[in-house]
Amino acid sequence: MTRVLLVGDLHTKTNLLPTIESAGKQHNVDRIVLLGDYLDDWDMYGVRNVRSLRAIVDWARENKNVTLLLGNHDMGYLYTDRRHSGYDYTIEDPASNILYNNRDLFSVADWAGNWLFTHAGLCAEWAHEVAGMSDNLSAKELSERLNSMLPDEGRLDQLRMVSASRGGREPSPGVVWADQRDLLADPYRGVNQVVGHTPQETCTAYTFSETDLAEDVDSIFGEVADGEDIDAEAGAEAADTEASAEAEADVKPTNAKPEAVDAPKEKHSEIIVFCDTFSTRRHGEAIGDKSMLLLDSENDTLYRVLGEEIEEIEKRSTSWIGRD
């Protein structure tokens, strides 16, 4: 079993690192994956911006189970030929040096089981037409191919392609720039994905039907009690409790042991989870609830983690955005 804690865009919020580390220990995770964008919070400029990046890099060095993925803000400083909104020109050189000198810590993609992790998501058109990827690649194969593009200067612009959804002119965006609308309209099929990049009120999951995007689907998460760890038997218990779990979806959590609800079992069904819950508006107002995603990749079971606690997830109905 591989248990992964996935964390959305931090944007200089180094005060959250102890909470992340504590949650990882509380829930006995094998790995912690940060989904990118470590710089450029509102009104965070100059020395404070650089110090936050250094603190995150030092923290990742100390914690060997941490993976740092690159986001569009990080790529903007690592390769300064293409800048982004909120770019801090005053830290261009020091930020670039920190990222370059610690490039062994950074990846474009990671994976666990049939789950692919990137900053913004892998769109099918970009994967096929730009990156030359075929159908039916595993999450591991996709991750390896994406990471192989990073040291290739000739392919950097492909990773950083921006579509009209984010103010660009490319027909399909790369994995550090895809907007939620891009990814929901044209996802690479056959793997599940976890991304950051697009701010969310809470970690939010979308599922697909066998052939097309579903119009109205519920987020699928484990239903658990506050303050309880997820034990190794949670996935096995789910098979026996699946029917009752659906019937009790609206019941308030108790102090009982957590009961997991498996991900959808339709053939070729995929899940995409958006995890950017730390981002704020310009004046510091929180957009999201600072939840993180806890993934048991063996059972394809998802939990929302808030600090050291795991909270019950209410299933939500969501409309899809289609592409002509």
Care to give the gist of this entry?
With 324 residues, the protein is α/β, with parallel strands linked by helices. Helix content is 26%, strand content 19%. The protein has a seven-stranded mixed β-sheet, with helices on one face.
Order of helices and strands: EHEHEHHEEEHHHHEEEHEEEEE
Q: What is the helix fraction of residues, given as a range?
A: 25-40%
Largest sheet: 7 strands, mixed
**Average pLDDT number:** 77
How much beta, percentage-wise?
15-25%
Q: Which descriptor suits the 3D outline?
A: globular
Helix/strand/pairing class, anyone?
Answer: alpha/beta
Radius of gyration: 19 Å
Uncertain segments: 214-219, 232-268, 312-324
Helices, by number, come to 9
Q: Got a strand count?
A: 14
Distance between the termini: 40 Å
Strand arrangement, major sheet = 4-3-2-1-11-12-13
Q: What can you tell me about this protein's structure?
A:
The model is unreliable at 214-219, 232-268 and 312-324 (pLDDT under 50). With 324 residues, the protein is of the alpha/beta class. The strands form 3 sheets. Strands 4-3-2-1-11-12-13 form a 7-stranded mixed β-sheet, covered by helices on one side. A 5-stranded mixed β-sheet has the order 5-6-7-10-8, with helices on one face. Strands 9-14 form a two-stranded antiparallel sheet. The protein is built from 9 helices and 14 strands. The longest helix is centred in the first third of the chain and has 16 residues, at 47-62.
